[in-house]
Amino acid sequence: MHSFRTKSSASTSFLKSIILTVVFIIAILIFSIIRSDLPSQLYSMVSDDTKNYQNITEYSEEEKSALKNKFAGFWVYRTKDTLAPVQKWDHLEILDNGIIWQIRSITVIFPWGDSSTTYSIRTAFIDPFGKIPKMQRIACNARVIRQVFIHNNDTCYGASQVDELWEADYSEDLFFLNQREYIPYKGEVSTFFPEGMIDLVDLIELEGCNSGASLSYYIKREIQKNSEKFKSGGIYYEQLIKDYYAPALIDEIFQSGSTFKPSMDSLLVRFAISPRGAISNPKTVGKIISHNKFEDLFFDELRTWVFPQYDDNETNKQIEYLFYF
Questions:
Q1: What residues contact 120, with CB distance under 8 A and at least 6 apart?
Q2: N or C end: fewer C-beta atoms under 10 angstroms in the chain?
Q3: How far apart are CA 256 and CA 272, in angstroms?
Q4: How far apart are the C-alpha atoms of 157 and 160, rounded to whole Å?
Q5: Mind listing the pLDDT tens digit for each residue in 265-302?
Q6: Residues 78-117: pLDDT tens digits?
Q7: Rounded to an integer, what distance in angstroms lies between the CA atom of residue 183 and that of residue 140?
Q8: Any idea where the domains of the chain sit in the sequence?
């Protein structure tokens, strides 16, 4: 009896040790697959999107330094269509040590002649990490050290000391950063930034912005504030999306530091607009797409859009719209 219990106990212990060993090995393999020598910002991203970032080989310190030198310079971006209702402007200075100074702006030009401009001013640090084999881009650790927003006459500071992952690439006459292509600045360096504006990131006495402050936050607020004017002017839902919401806001998903990319170039979406102008039940139309974090971000953004209100006695309006990325 005693010997049986001893044998049984020994067998149980042996079995437990085997199980623990197997579990330990599996855990190591899973961690190795997920990690794939990725920057720290990607460790927690366990989804289909991480496939794009596997098999990255980290650059040596010498290679990182060489890339920072190639990134360095004064770069500009402008909306190509100068007559578009939404105009974007971006001036980016990169030092050879990876420090960035940047001013971005979005100007919304309304059909009735008024306009509104919102600025995002930030200082950041960029550190090239490794080549992304699937997309042929350079994955970069980035930290937004401090950022300030100016909307009309209001100035406030947003979230600071934020770690992000940016994608970059370069050539002699082109710099690519987060889905945006910049060209070299050819003017006077002394006038590269509007006078006094870049110094705002050092003003500690500025008050904090509203929670979630971003360029898209302020642009949405401006569009929503004028929703009745759009309605009275005959600017209806599809045109409001095409001229204002899509160019002003979808691009900001890419500029926000998100590394998630759409699984396709366009997305056909169907949703309802309530009599109060709120969006409900947005969903894709056509073939089912694989789960992708970009689509999650896109639908989260879409649900925050507000349109002109209409007669409460009417039923929800059904909208089907093809978004291009």
A1: 102, 103, 104, 105, 147, 148, 149, 158, 214, 215
A2: N
A3: 27
A4: 8
A5: 788 999 999 888 889 889 888 765 555 677 888 888 88
A6: 999 999 999 999 999 999 999 999 999 999 999 888 999 9
A7: 20
A8: 2-53, 61-324
